[in-house]
């Protein structure tokens, strides 16, 4: 059965109800609008069990990991492009 999409405000409330601390809700809203809930969910799996976040887990902590992963991916793509040109 297909789940209905939740509005961003409801996504934030759902995450908070699952013990995730969100310090800046405005920033969280922007991040969820640009990256979507399910894309980010892969990054918070490490911090949750059975849809419940470990104590003291923050949205900002998860976004930091997501941004570092994106930076690493960009760096690797740049290296691959240079290799391709040289090859």
What does the overall shape look like? Answer: elongated
Oligomer: single chain
Could you tell me the number of beta strands?
A: 2
Tally the helices. 4
Average per-residue pLDDT, rounded, comes to 93
What structural class do helix, strand and pairing data support? mainly alpha
Strand content: under 5%
Order of helices and strands: HHHEEH
Radius of gyration: 16 Å
Characterize this entry briefly:
By secondary structure, the chain is mainly alpha-helical.
SSE arrangement:
Elements: H1 8-17, H2 25-35, H3 37-44, E1 48-49, E2 52-53, H4 59-86
Antiparallel strand pairs: 1-2
Give a quick set of tags describing it.
87 residues; mainly alpha; 5% strand
Give a structural overview.
With 87 residues, the chain is mostly helical. The chain has one domain. It contains four helices and two strands, in the order H-H-H-E-E-H. Strands 1-2 form a two-stranded antiparallel sheet. A hairpin with a 2-residue loop joins strand 1 and strand 2. The longest helix has 28 residues, at 59-86. The mean pLDDT is 93.
